[in-house]
Amino acid sequence: MNDDLEHELRRALRPVDPGEDFTRAVMARLQSPNVVSLPRARPHSRVQRVLPWAPAALAASLLMTIMLTHQHRKEEQELAEGLRAREELLLALRVTSEKLDIAYQVVHTTNSTPM
């Protein structure tokens, strides 16, 4: 069945010579002054205006992304450094408080003993 269909298609679509009369008529028509050429399709004008700017726009957006990423990382780093400094300050205050408590106890124990 497929062979029959293929054979029918080949027979129906085989090249056929249109003849010398057809060729003469086409050539005469092309040479006549009444032939109107179809307008050529113009590319879309918006595309023509935007296309030259596309690489610049892409480069600008890429540059902006890099700058924003760098700024975000810098802010995160500053925040981490600030938290580290806070922890160090709290530790220093805790140690100072303990040392002051020891000094207070030494001073009060020395003053309470009779001389």
Write out key terms for the chains shown.
115 residues, 4 helices, single chain, mainly alpha
Architecture overview:
The protein is an all-alpha fold and 115 residues long. It has helices at 2-12, 20-31, 45-50, 54-112. 0% of the residues are buried. The model has no long low-confidence stretch (mean pLDDT 86).
H-E string: HHHH
Radius of gyration: 46 Å
**What's the number of extended β-strand segments?**
0
* Percent helix: over 70%
Give the low-pLDDT segments: none
**Sheet with most strands:** none
Helical segment count: 4
Category by helix and strand content: mainly alpha
Spatial gap, N to C terminus = 129 Å
Instruction: Give the overall form.
Output: rod-shaped
- Beta content comes to under 5%
- Mean of the pLDDT scores? 86
Quick structural overview:
This protein has 115 residues and is mainly α.
Fold topology:
Layout: H1 2-12, H2 20-31, H3 45-50, H4 54-112
